[in-house]
Amino acid sequence: MAKKAHVSETPATALLKSRGVEFTEHPYEYLEHGGAQHSARVLGLDPFAVVKTLIMQDDKAQPLVVLMHGNRTVSTKNLARQIGRKSVEPCKPEVANRHSGYLVGGTSPFGTRKAMPVYVEESILALPRIWLNGGKRGYLVGIAPQTCVDLLGAQPVRCALEE
């Protein structure tokens, strides 16, 4: 019988466990700049169901989290309009790391250093299951998408663009 790869607990998995959320662990070999497309490919998952955690900021440099399909990009104009901001842009990696407490490529929306508003692409909530980062590079967790609303207060938005 193959031994299951051990993954050390992260702030994200600690939060999920403390709230009684059932999740599955999916470690994989991390590839610099591989993103959600790479993790989906090596784990045999649909990239539409692998969710990216993006740390962005508004026109006042206030951070926010956007959960987006692995094979889509964020229309920052549409997002800004829907959340009542003048503009939204991705944070520089070092700024994103400071806000989230995670390294870019290993950012989870759960257990972030700072409390930030979370926005989720509406169609993600219609999926039966999603896989998103578990708090370290090369590690996804599988959860019910409603968990993002229940634990994070994620607000649905429609800002996906085909890649």
Can you give me a brief rundown of this structure?
The chain is an alpha/beta fold and about 160 residues long.
Give me some keywords for this one.
163 residues, 25% helix, alpha/beta, two-stranded antiparallel sheet, 8-stranded mixed beta sheet
Could you please describe the fold and organization of this structure?
The chain has 163 residues and is α/β, with parallel strands linked by helices. Helices cover 25% and strands 29% of the residues. It contains 5 helices and 10 strands; from the N terminus they run H-E-H-E-E-E-H-E-H-E-E-E-H-E-E. The protein has helices at residues 11-18, 35-43, 76-83, 93-100, 146-152, and strands at residues 24-27, 50-58, 63-69, 72-74, 88-90, 118-121, 130-136, 139-143, 155-157, 160-162. Strands 1, 2, 3, 5, 6, 7, 8 and 9 form an 8-stranded mixed sheet that branches. A two-stranded antiparallel ribbon has the order 4-10. Strand 2 (50-58) and strand 3 (63-69) form a beta hairpin. The longest helix is centred in the N-terminal third of the chain and has 9 residues, at 35-43.
